[in-house]
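Aim 2 progress update. The chain analyzed this quarter is reproduced below.
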Amino acid sequence: MNKIPIEQSQFNSNLERRKRFGQIIYFLLLSCVLIGIAGLLVLLIRILFDGVDWLSWHFITNFPSRHPELAGMKSAIFGTIWTIALTGVFTVPIGIGAAVYLEEYSPKNWFTQIIEINISNLAGVPSIVYGLLGLALFVQWMSIGRAVLAGALTLALLVLPIVILASREAIKAVPDSYRQASYALGATKWETQKSVVLPSAMPSILTGVILALSRAIGEAAPIIAISALVYLTFIPTNPLSRFTVMPIQIFNWVSRPQDEFRGLAAAGIIILLLILLGMNSIAIYLRNRYQKQSEE
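Predicted C-alpha coordinates:
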Protein backbone atom coordinates (compact mmCIF):
# COMPACT_ATOMS: atom_id res chain seq x y z
CA MET A 1 0.00 0.00 0.00
CA ASN A 2 2.91 2.38 0.68
CA LYS A 3 4.80 1.49 -2.50
CA ILE A 4 3.00 3.96 -4.76
CA PRO A 5 3.58 7.06 -2.57
CA ILE A 6 7.27 6.13 -2.20
CA GLU A 7 7.71 5.79 -5.98
CA GLN A 8 5.83 9.06 -6.52
CA SER A 9 8.09 10.91 -4.08
CA GLN A 10 11.20 9.50 -5.76
CA PHE A 11 9.85 10.57 -9.14
CA ASN A 12 9.17 14.10 -7.86
CA SER A 13 12.65 14.27 -6.34
CA ASN A 14 14.29 13.18 -9.60
CA LEU A 15 12.16 15.65 -11.52
CA GLU A 16 13.18 18.53 -9.25
CA ARG A 17 16.85 17.56 -9.52
CA ARG A 18 16.67 17.45 -13.32
CA LYS A 19 14.95 20.83 -13.42
CA ARG A 20 17.69 22.37 -11.26
CA PHE A 21 20.36 20.81 -13.47
CA GLY A 22 18.60 22.15 -16.57
CA GLN A 23 18.46 25.65 -15.07
CA ILE A 24 22.19 25.51 -14.27
CA ILE A 25 23.01 24.52 -17.86
CA TYR A 26 20.71 27.26 -19.15
CA PHE A 27 22.46 29.96 -17.12
CA LEU A 28 25.90 28.65 -18.09
CA LEU A 29 25.04 28.78 -21.79
CA LEU A 30 23.45 32.20 -21.38
CA SER A 31 26.60 33.42 -19.63
CA CYS A 32 28.70 32.23 -22.58
CA VAL A 33 26.50 34.19 -24.98
CA LEU A 34 26.60 37.30 -22.81
CA ILE A 35 30.39 37.13 -22.51
CA GLY A 36 30.71 36.97 -26.28
CA ILE A 37 28.30 39.87 -26.76
CA ALA A 38 30.08 41.91 -24.08
CA GLY A 39 33.44 41.39 -25.79
CA LEU A 40 31.97 42.41 -29.13
CA LEU A 41 30.41 45.54 -27.61
CA VAL A 42 33.74 46.53 -26.03
CA LEU A 43 35.47 46.21 -29.40
CA LEU A 44 32.75 48.17 -31.19
CA ILE A 45 32.78 50.95 -28.59
CA ARG A 46 36.58 51.18 -28.79
CA ILE A 47 36.49 51.35 -32.59
CA LEU A 48 33.77 54.01 -32.57
CA PHE A 49 35.64 56.02 -29.94
CA ASP A 50 38.88 55.94 -31.96
CA GLY A 51 37.50 56.27 -35.47
CA VAL A 52 34.40 58.43 -35.47
CA ASP A 53 36.41 61.67 -35.45
CA TRP A 54 38.22 60.59 -38.62
CA LEU A 55 35.07 59.82 -40.58
CA SER A 56 34.39 62.42 -43.25
CA TRP A 57 33.58 62.73 -46.91
CA HIS A 58 37.25 63.41 -47.61
CA PHE A 59 38.16 60.11 -45.95
CA ILE A 60 36.01 58.29 -48.52
CA THR A 61 37.05 60.33 -51.57
CA ASN A 62 40.79 60.79 -50.88
CA PHE A 63 43.55 58.40 -51.86
CA PRO A 64 46.02 57.03 -49.27
CA SER A 65 48.66 59.47 -48.14
CA ARG A 66 51.70 59.62 -45.86
CA HIS A 67 49.99 62.47 -44.06
CA PRO A 68 47.14 61.21 -41.82
CA GLU A 69 45.01 64.33 -42.26
CA LEU A 70 45.03 63.81 -46.06
CA ALA A 71 44.72 60.02 -46.18
CA GLY A 72 41.61 58.26 -47.44
CA MET A 73 40.29 54.88 -48.64
CA LYS A 74 39.10 55.67 -52.15
CA SER A 75 41.36 53.17 -53.94
CA ALA A 76 40.67 50.46 -51.34
CA ILE A 77 36.90 50.97 -51.49
CA PHE A 78 36.77 50.77 -55.28
CA GLY A 79 39.17 47.83 -55.27
CA THR A 80 36.89 46.01 -52.84
CA ILE A 81 33.83 46.72 -55.00
CA TRP A 82 35.59 45.43 -58.11
CA THR A 83 36.85 42.31 -56.34
CA ILE A 84 33.56 41.35 -54.71
CA ALA A 85 31.56 42.01 -57.88
CA LEU A 86 33.78 39.69 -59.90
CA THR A 87 33.81 37.14 -57.08
CA GLY A 88 30.01 37.05 -57.18
CA VAL A 89 30.01 36.65 -60.98
CA PHE A 90 32.21 33.56 -60.71
CA THR A 91 30.80 32.10 -57.50
CA VAL A 92 27.01 32.35 -57.78
CA PRO A 93 26.30 30.45 -61.03
CA ILE A 94 28.97 27.81 -60.41
CA GLY A 95 28.00 27.30 -56.77
CA ILE A 96 24.26 27.04 -57.38
CA GLY A 97 24.76 24.87 -60.46
CA ALA A 98 27.02 22.49 -58.56
CA ALA A 99 24.52 22.29 -55.71
CA VAL A 100 21.64 21.48 -58.07
CA TYR A 101 23.67 18.76 -59.79
CA LEU A 102 24.89 17.16 -56.57
CA GLU A 103 21.48 17.23 -54.93
CA GLU A 104 19.16 16.44 -57.85
CA TYR A 105 21.07 14.83 -60.71
CA SER A 106 24.24 13.12 -59.52
CA PRO A 107 24.20 9.34 -58.98
CA LYS A 108 24.73 8.25 -55.40
CA ASN A 109 28.01 6.37 -55.71
CA TRP A 110 31.53 6.47 -54.28
CA PHE A 111 32.68 9.16 -56.71
CA THR A 112 30.03 11.67 -55.67
CA GLN A 113 30.66 10.81 -52.02
CA ILE A 114 34.33 11.72 -52.48
CA ILE A 115 33.30 15.02 -54.10
CA GLU A 116 30.92 15.83 -51.24
CA ILE A 117 33.55 15.04 -48.61
CA ASN A 118 36.12 17.20 -50.38
CA ILE A 119 33.69 20.13 -50.66
CA SER A 120 32.97 19.91 -46.93
CA ASN A 121 36.68 19.79 -46.14
CA LEU A 122 37.50 22.70 -48.45
CA ALA A 123 35.06 24.90 -46.53
CA GLY A 124 37.37 24.65 -43.50
CA VAL A 125 40.73 25.23 -45.21
CA PRO A 126 42.56 28.35 -43.90
CA SER A 127 42.24 31.34 -46.21
CA ILE A 128 46.00 31.83 -46.59
CA VAL A 129 46.17 28.43 -48.32
CA TYR A 130 43.77 29.74 -50.98
CA GLY A 131 45.95 32.84 -51.28
CA LEU A 132 49.04 30.75 -52.01
CA LEU A 133 47.04 28.62 -54.45
CA GLY A 134 45.81 31.75 -56.24
CA LEU A 135 49.34 33.12 -56.39
CA ALA A 136 50.68 29.94 -57.97
CA LEU A 137 47.70 29.22 -60.24
CA PHE A 138 46.31 32.56 -61.40
CA VAL A 139 49.21 34.98 -60.98
CA GLN A 140 52.12 32.81 -62.10
CA TRP A 141 50.86 29.82 -64.09
CA MET A 142 48.01 31.59 -65.94
CA SER A 143 50.06 34.83 -66.08
CA ILE A 144 47.12 37.02 -65.07
CA GLY A 145 49.40 39.06 -62.84
CA ARG A 146 48.59 40.72 -59.55
CA ALA A 147 45.30 42.04 -60.87
CA VAL A 148 41.70 42.30 -59.72
CA LEU A 149 40.81 39.21 -61.75
CA ALA A 150 43.36 37.06 -59.89
CA GLY A 151 42.08 38.29 -56.53
CA ALA A 152 38.45 37.66 -57.50
CA LEU A 153 39.22 34.13 -58.71
CA THR A 154 41.10 33.38 -55.49
CA LEU A 155 38.22 34.62 -53.32
CA ALA A 156 35.81 32.66 -55.51
CA LEU A 157 37.72 29.48 -54.65
CA LEU A 158 37.55 30.47 -50.99
CA VAL A 159 33.79 30.96 -50.76
CA LEU A 160 32.65 28.48 -53.43
CA PRO A 161 32.42 25.51 -50.98
CA ILE A 162 30.34 27.65 -48.63
CA VAL A 163 27.92 28.61 -51.41
CA ILE A 164 27.63 24.99 -52.55
CA LEU A 165 26.91 23.71 -49.04
CA ALA A 166 24.37 26.45 -48.29
CA SER A 167 22.62 25.93 -51.63
CA ARG A 168 22.49 22.17 -51.16
CA GLU A 169 20.90 22.54 -47.74
CA ALA A 170 18.36 24.98 -49.17
CA ILE A 171 17.46 22.61 -52.02
CA LYS A 172 17.29 19.67 -49.64
CA ALA A 173 14.82 21.58 -47.44
CA VAL A 174 12.26 21.85 -50.28
CA PRO A 175 9.53 19.24 -49.59
CA ASP A 176 9.61 16.30 -51.97
CA SER A 177 5.84 16.65 -52.43
CA TYR A 178 6.52 19.81 -54.47
CA ARG A 179 8.57 17.78 -56.95
CA GLN A 180 6.02 14.97 -57.12
CA ALA A 181 3.19 17.43 -57.77
CA SER A 182 5.20 19.01 -60.58
CA TYR A 183 5.92 15.62 -62.15
CA ALA A 184 2.25 14.71 -61.86
CA LEU A 185 1.37 17.78 -63.93
CA GLY A 186 3.70 16.62 -66.70
CA ALA A 187 6.74 18.81 -66.01
CA THR A 188 10.20 17.54 -66.85
CA LYS A 189 12.98 17.29 -64.29
CA TRP A 190 14.60 20.55 -65.41
CA GLU A 191 11.25 22.36 -65.51
CA THR A 192 10.63 21.16 -61.98
CA GLN A 193 14.00 22.45 -60.85
CA LYS A 194 13.60 25.79 -62.61
CA SER A 195 9.99 26.55 -61.69
CA VAL A 196 9.47 24.75 -58.37
CA VAL A 197 12.62 23.78 -56.50
CA LEU A 198 14.86 26.80 -57.10
CA PRO A 199 12.17 29.44 -56.39
CA SER A 200 11.32 27.66 -53.13
CA ALA A 201 14.97 27.38 -52.13
CA MET A 202 15.98 30.86 -53.29
CA PRO A 203 15.58 32.66 -49.90
CA SER A 204 18.09 30.38 -48.20
CA ILE A 205 20.35 30.31 -51.26
CA LEU A 206 20.51 34.12 -51.40
CA THR A 207 21.21 34.29 -47.69
CA GLY A 208 24.09 31.83 -48.04
CA VAL A 209 25.52 33.65 -51.07
CA ILE A 210 25.47 37.07 -49.44
CA LEU A 211 26.95 35.78 -46.20
CA ALA A 212 29.70 34.05 -48.20
CA LEU A 213 30.47 37.28 -50.06
CA SER A 214 30.46 39.11 -46.73
CA ARG A 215 33.18 36.77 -45.56
CA ALA A 216 35.14 37.42 -48.76
CA ILE A 217 35.05 41.19 -48.12
CA GLY A 218 36.77 40.78 -44.77
CA GLU A 219 39.47 38.36 -45.91
CA ALA A 220 42.93 39.92 -46.01
CA ALA A 221 45.26 36.89 -46.11
CA PRO A 222 44.44 35.71 -49.68
CA ILE A 223 44.72 39.24 -51.08
CA ILE A 224 48.03 39.84 -49.32
CA ALA A 225 49.39 36.84 -51.22
CA ILE A 226 47.92 38.10 -54.51
CA SER A 227 48.46 41.85 -54.21
CA ALA A 228 50.10 43.39 -51.15
CA LEU A 229 49.80 46.91 -52.51
CA VAL A 230 48.75 49.42 -49.86
CA TYR A 231 49.62 52.74 -51.48
CA LEU A 232 47.59 53.25 -54.65
CA THR A 233 46.63 56.65 -56.01
CA PHE A 234 44.33 55.29 -58.71
CA ILE A 235 41.23 53.13 -58.87
CA PRO A 236 40.87 49.94 -60.96
CA THR A 237 39.40 50.51 -64.41
CA ASN A 238 39.28 46.91 -65.66
CA PRO A 239 39.73 43.37 -64.31
CA LEU A 240 43.45 43.42 -65.16
CA SER A 241 44.23 46.55 -63.12
CA ARG A 242 46.39 46.50 -60.00
CA PHE A 243 44.34 46.89 -56.84
CA THR A 244 44.12 46.93 -53.09
CA VAL A 245 41.22 46.22 -50.75
CA MET A 246 39.95 47.63 -47.48
CA PRO A 247 41.32 44.93 -45.10
CA ILE A 248 44.84 45.42 -46.50
CA GLN A 249 44.60 49.19 -46.17
CA ILE A 250 43.37 48.83 -42.58
CA PHE A 251 46.20 46.39 -41.80
CA ASN A 252 48.74 48.86 -43.19
CA TRP A 253 47.42 51.72 -41.07
CA VAL A 254 47.39 49.60 -37.92
CA SER A 255 51.04 48.68 -38.46
CA ARG A 256 52.10 52.35 -38.63
CA PRO A 257 53.70 53.76 -35.45
CA GLN A 258 51.70 57.03 -35.44
CA ASP A 259 48.52 57.12 -33.38
CA GLU A 260 46.75 59.09 -36.12
CA PHE A 261 46.94 56.13 -38.49
CA ARG A 262 45.32 53.92 -35.85
CA GLY A 263 42.41 56.35 -35.87
CA LEU A 264 42.26 56.04 -39.65
CA ALA A 265 42.26 52.25 -39.29
CA ALA A 266 39.35 52.46 -36.85
CA ALA A 267 37.45 54.67 -39.30
CA GLY A 268 38.12 52.13 -42.04
CA ILE A 269 36.81 49.34 -39.82
CA ILE A 270 33.61 51.34 -39.26
CA ILE A 271 33.06 51.67 -43.02
CA LEU A 272 33.79 47.97 -43.52
CA LEU A 273 31.30 47.07 -40.77
CA LEU A 274 28.67 49.30 -42.36
CA ILE A 275 29.15 47.54 -45.69
CA LEU A 276 28.85 44.13 -44.01
CA LEU A 277 25.73 45.18 -42.10
CA GLY A 278 24.25 46.50 -45.33
CA MET A 279 24.87 43.20 -47.11
CA ASN A 280 23.38 41.23 -44.22
CA SER A 281 20.34 43.51 -44.24
CA ILE A 282 19.91 42.87 -47.96
CA ALA A 283 20.09 39.13 -47.28
CA ILE A 284 17.37 39.39 -44.63
CA TYR A 285 15.18 41.52 -46.91
CA LEU A 286 15.51 39.17 -49.88
CA ARG A 287 14.87 36.14 -47.71
CA ASN A 288 11.69 37.62 -46.27
CA ARG A 289 10.53 38.81 -49.68
CA TYR A 290 10.98 35.43 -51.36
CA GLN A 291 9.40 33.65 -48.41
CA LYS A 292 6.28 35.81 -48.75
CA GLN A 293 6.16 35.12 -52.47
CA SER A 294 6.50 31.38 -51.96
CA GLU A 295 3.74 31.39 -49.34
CA GLU A 296 1.41 33.24 -51.72
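The longest helix spans residues 3-51. The mean pLDDT is 84. These observations will guide the mutagenesis experiments scheduled for the next reporting period.
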